[in-house]
């Protein structure tokens, strides 16, 4: 499908001010196509030509599929129906003025195609965002973003619903795999770089879901209650950093309420913080079904209603026209809504780089998918250097987790059907039937091929590799006993709309690992999970690898780590608790509500989630404040070599730290130096990190600058960040719980405007 336009269709001959002191004469192209002008100037020029009806078109989105989601909604008009791409959303263009249509698609596991996939659709199944975060590698995140952006274009879309940066406040949140962990600096940096990479391919990316959309149960009804100071220092800071680094064209407001007010009509979040303090020049789009009013939403900062059939009413259609007529939405505000959308379309290249769909670069996608998986898989345990596997592993048992099929991925709107699969015929989908018309529902478990069994066989040249599906524990134990090595695959499926009731592996998987590990001390457990899980069998397992949802090259990455072709370097972006009792909310709020909720039902189940319990102390900060020992701490991950951290020194001007990292082992490997600070009277926080590859014996001296906001606290009365005078304890190490060098930094009081 091609929704570009030809400038030749729009003939203009005008003189325009080029913004550089010269008048540029252009002929045959409309003045807003003059790239010497700023995006704001170009938006103004085209907007001046638009009718009211055309302006309304831009703020009102359609579901990218001819389907009646809302029983109250009429089917789309014919001209819209014909143009609908098979995707998440669609905003018609205005061919008369050469304004391209906005064609929206999801991301988090690659460019999504699960929701409305047509057979034969191709997209690279990248590792889940949480895995990209566990690479602790911003440059890699940029490359992942670039693949996302290029495939988005190639597949005929120009708006990518990427950039999930909600903090992992709860390890049961069904969408944590779409986010980047629990720390604002790490999440903001990784997500910001993914957005930057995607947008450098001339598309718009979002950052989402703004804000505090930190659990799925009751996401349409709950109120996330968190004081401003704590919010600014945690969830909002993650967005702030991601927006600064990535400069997204759009922000998607969330389903949930924040402080009792729906996110998509929340004056504080949208007008005060986003557009006021942060001076965000782009537009706010709603999440699908996140709009609850017309004038209230528009006046409080929402610029575009997405896929309106998901909302209870058509709020930004005729209702907005009426609100303009009766003055409840001002002309100035409406002008601003349209201006912001056009401005982002110009700023991100939608006008200057029209879509020219073509087959995606399958090779490039696979190459980046593999590199990302290899950098994000985390080695959690490796007793007696069981890994990497050597020549002594002659008989290998591969057990459980559909390891003969593929690696697990997450579910929901971000779902990607991997390359090379025909969902109508392949056995790649388990746990759900293929729906009619060759389309598959996003509630289906998807396994990305190839199978770990095949990649392990390929790496274990000459060894005998046998598979047992783990369904019958006795048979798995018999195979493990007759083998030198047992590799047990266990998994936890997470999907949008549903949270886990607890942090245990589902089914009989704990019993399976327990029994196999008892039968064979050389048991390696490979986790494919979207969240931290409890490991009651941990002391019996020889080695444990957290592979998250590693995507279509995940099986290669796992095998290459098991056999030592790749030295693991992932670090945990999220704390692994020992049990739910260690969490701020041992029972997840709304646990008994029906999941997923149906936002179109007339009765709302409003409830509160008290995030003030932990406030800004999310994840490892909570564990530190409460003196709790987690199962595995934030930032943790082993390597096949060892590293030493030393010589930590800090300077106030410029605000920076410097130190040495040494590879103290015998293999080349990547260290992730992490610097934590404890300001006077406040809690510990990550203030800098840097991944570096070192040869055995090599030492690298590093200097990293610090963002003063990370050392500050937010003063709500003065509405600014305040760095307190005093001594700041600094710690350098390989994780939040492994500090190898310390230093003290003395700072005078200072303030920073948000
Ligand atoms: C999700 C968004 C997504 C949208 C469009 C919603 O259900 O919350 O993350 O972008 O659907 O698919």
Which properties best describe this structure?
24% helix; 3 domains; alpha/beta; TIM Barrel; binds beta-D-glucopyranose; Rossmann fold; globular; Immunoglobulin-like; 754 residues; 7-stranded mixed beta sheet; 18 helices; 32 strands; disordered N terminus
List the helices and strands and how they pair.
Layout lengths: L12 E5 L5 E5 L11 H9 L4 H7 L3 E2 L14 H6 L5 E3 L10 E5 L22 H6 L3 H17 L4 E3 L22 H16 L4 E7 L11 E4 L2 H6 L1 H12 L3 E4 L3 E2 L2 E2 L4 H11 L5 E4 L8 H5 L18 H8 L5 H17 L14 H15 L1 E5 L12 E5 L7 E2 L20 E2 L14 E4 L3 H8 L4 E5 L4 H9 L3 E7 L17 H11 L3 E6 L14 E4 L7 H9 L44 E4 L9 H6 L17 E9 L4 E8 L5 E10 L6 E10 L4 E7 L7 E3 L4 E4 L2 E10 L2 E10 L2 E3 L2
Parallel strand pairs: 5-6, 6-7, 7-9, 8-10, 8-22, 9-12, 14-18, 14-19, 19-20, 20-21
Antiparallel strand pairs: 1-2, 3-4, 4-5, 10-11, 13-21, 15-17, 16-17, 23-24, 24-27, 25-26, 25-30, 28-29, 29-32, 30-31
């Amino acid at each position: 499908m091609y929704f570009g336009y030809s400038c030749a269709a729009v003939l203009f001959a005008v003189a325009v001010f080029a913004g550089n002191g010269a008048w540029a004469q252009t002929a045959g192209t409309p003045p807003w196509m003059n790239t010497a002008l700023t995006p704001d100037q170009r938006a103004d020029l085209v907007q001046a030509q638009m009718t009211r009806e055309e302006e309304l078109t831009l703020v009102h989105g359609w579901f990218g599929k001819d389907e009646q989601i809302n029983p109250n909604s009429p089917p789309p008009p014919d001209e819209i129906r014909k143009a609908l791409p098979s995707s998440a959303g669609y905003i018609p263009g205005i061919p008369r003025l050469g304004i391209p249509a906005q064609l929206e698609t999801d991301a988090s596991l690659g460019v999504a195609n699960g929701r409305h996939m047509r057979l034969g659709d191709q997209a690279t199944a990248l590792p889940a965002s949480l895995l990209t975060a566990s690479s602790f590698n911003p440059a890699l995140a940029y490359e992942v973003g670039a693949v996302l952006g290029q495939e988005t274009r190639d597949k005929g879309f120009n708006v990518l619903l990427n950039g999930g940066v909600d903090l992992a406040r709860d390890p049961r949140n069904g969408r944590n795999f779409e986010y980047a962990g629990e720390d604002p600096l790490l999440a903001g940096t990784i997500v910001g770089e993914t957005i930057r990479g995607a947008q450098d391919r001339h598309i718009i990316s979002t950052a989402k879901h703004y804000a505090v959309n930190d659990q799925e149960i009751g996401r349409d009804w709950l109120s996330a209650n968190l004081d401003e100071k704590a919010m600014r220092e945690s969830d909002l800071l993650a967005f702030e950093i991601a927006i600064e680094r990535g400069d997204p064209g759009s922000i998607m407001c969330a389903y949930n309420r924040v402080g009792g007010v729906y996110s998509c009509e929340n004056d504080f979040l949208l007008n005060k913080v986003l557009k006021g303090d942060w001076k965000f020049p782009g537009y706010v789009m709603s999440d699908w079904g996140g709009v609850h009013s017309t004038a209230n939403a528009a006046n409080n900062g929402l610029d575009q209603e997405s896929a309106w059939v998901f909302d209870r009413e058509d709020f930004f259609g005729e209702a907005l026209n009426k609100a303009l007529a009766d003055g409840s939405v001002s002309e100035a505000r409406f002008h601003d809504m349209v201006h912001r959308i056009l401005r982002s379309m110009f700023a991100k290249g939608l006008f200057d780089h029209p879509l020219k769909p073509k087959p995606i670069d399958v090779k490039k996608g696979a190459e980046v998918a593999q590199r990302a998986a290899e950098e994000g898989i985390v080695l959690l345990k490796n007793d007696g250097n069981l890994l990497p596997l050597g020549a002594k592993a002659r008989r290998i048992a591969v057990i459980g987790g559909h390891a003969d099929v593929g690696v697990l991925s997450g579910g929901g709107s971000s779902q990607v059907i991997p390359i090379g699969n025909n969902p109508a015929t392949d056995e790649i989908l388990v746990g759900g039937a293929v729906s009619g018309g060759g389309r598959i529902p996003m509630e289906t478990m998807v396994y990305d091929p190839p199978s770990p069994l095949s990649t392990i066989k390929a790496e274990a040249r000459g060894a005998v590799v046998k598979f047992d599906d783990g369904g019958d524990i006795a048979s798995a134990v018999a195979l493990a006993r007759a083998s030198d090595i047992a590799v047990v695959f266990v998994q936890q499926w997470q999907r949008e709309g549903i949270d886990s009731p607890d942090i245990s592996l589902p089914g009989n998987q704990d019993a399976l690992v327990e029994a196999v590990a008892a039968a064979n001390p050389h048991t390696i457990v490979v986790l494919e999970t979207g969240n931290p899980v409890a490991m009651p069998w941990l002391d019996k397992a020889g080695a444990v690898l957290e592979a998250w949802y590693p995507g279509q090259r995940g099986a290669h990455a796992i095998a290459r780590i098991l056999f030592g072709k790749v030295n693991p370097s992932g670090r945990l972006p999220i704390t692994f608790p020992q049990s739910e009792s260690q969490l701020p909310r041992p029972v997840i709020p709304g646990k008994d509500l029906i999941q997923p909720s149906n936002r179109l039902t007339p009765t709302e189940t409003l409830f509160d989630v008290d995030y003030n319990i932990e406030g800004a102390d999310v994840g490892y900060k909570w564990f530190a404040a409460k003196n709790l020992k987690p199962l595995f701490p934030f930032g943790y991950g082993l390597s096949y070599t060892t590293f030493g951290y030393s010589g930590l020194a800090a300077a106030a001007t410029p605000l920076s730290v410097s130190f040495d990292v040494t590879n103290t082992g015998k293999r080349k490997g990547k260290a992730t130096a992490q610097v934590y600070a404890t300001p006077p009277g406040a809690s510990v926080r990550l203030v800098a990190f840097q991944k570096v590859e070192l040869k055995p014996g090599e030492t690298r001296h590093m200097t990293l600058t610090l963002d003063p906001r990370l050392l500050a606290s937010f003063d709500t009365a003065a509405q600014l960040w305040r760095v307190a005078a005093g001594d700041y304890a600094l710690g350098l190490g390989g994780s939040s719980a492994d500090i190898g060098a310390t230093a003290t930094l003395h700072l005078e009081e200072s303030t920073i405007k948000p």
